[in-house]
């Protein structure tokens, strides 16, 4: 059975890579996560995609990116290959690091963007790793809502523009949408 063709046209996507092949975790410590973020920053600059959000878990990661035609597969190959090389060197492993190909889902409108963002940044809370998305240091969430300085390669302006409401602080509005009481 052949694989479905990837959507390689320009647009906004939720991307995730899950599971490692022969190791218990994709990221075993802060060093691994920082190394991945360095690669993500390099790929963002090289391929000129817009990284709207990210969240690194132990066994997988999520990205929300905006890309031009044909950029997503090339950028993802570069990102995953660079991190796999680091991972394999550090842990004396060989071969594939990810269990399967990355998944990508087109984001169709502002409501879908907010739903995907909510899903991505709530991941650590659902996994029991923290009480609030703002507490997870391996996510762009705190920087996006103004609770911390953000990563230089993250540009959440598309998300913030979609959430803008007259007379309301956009960061606070977004925070209220993600972290309901």
The helix-strand sequence is EHEEHEHHHH
Give the total of domains: 1
What is the helix content?
Answer: 40-55%
Distance between the amino and carboxyl termini:
47 Å
**In total, how many beta strands?**
4
CATH superfamily: Transposase IS200-like
CATH architect. name: 2-Layer Sandwich
Kindly provide the name of the CATH class: Alpha Beta
CATH topology term: Alpha-Beta Plaits
What structural class do the secondary elements suggest?
alpha+beta
Shape: globular
Biggest beta-sheet profile = 4 strands, antiparallel
Major sheet: order of its strands? 2-3-1-4
Number of helices: 6
Strand content: 5-15%
Key words describing this protein structure:
single chain; 181 residues; Alpha-Beta Plaits; 6 helices; globular
């Amino acid at each position: 059975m052949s694989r479905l063709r990837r959507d390689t046209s320009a647009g906004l996507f939720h991307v995730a890579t899950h599971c490692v092949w022969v190791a218990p975790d994709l990221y075993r410590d802060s060093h691994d996560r920082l190394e991945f973020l360095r690669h993500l920053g390099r790929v963002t600059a090289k391929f000129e995609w817009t990284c709207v959000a990210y969240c690194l878990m132990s066994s997988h990661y999520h990205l929300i990116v905006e890309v031009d035609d044909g950029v997503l597969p090339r950028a993802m190959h570069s990102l995953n290959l660079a991190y796999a090389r680091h991972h394999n060197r550090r842990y004396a492993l060989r071969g594939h690091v990810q269990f399967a190909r990355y998944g990508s889902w087109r984001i169709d409108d502002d409501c879908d963007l907010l739903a995907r963002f909510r899903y991505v940044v709530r991941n650590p809370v659902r996994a029991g790793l923290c009480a609030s998305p703002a507490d997870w240091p391996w996510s762009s969430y705190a920087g996006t809502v103004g609770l911390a300085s953000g990563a230089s390669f993250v540009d959440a302006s598309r998300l913030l523009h979609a959430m803008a409401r007259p007379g309301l602080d956009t960061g606070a509005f977004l925070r209220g949408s993600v972290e309901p009481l």
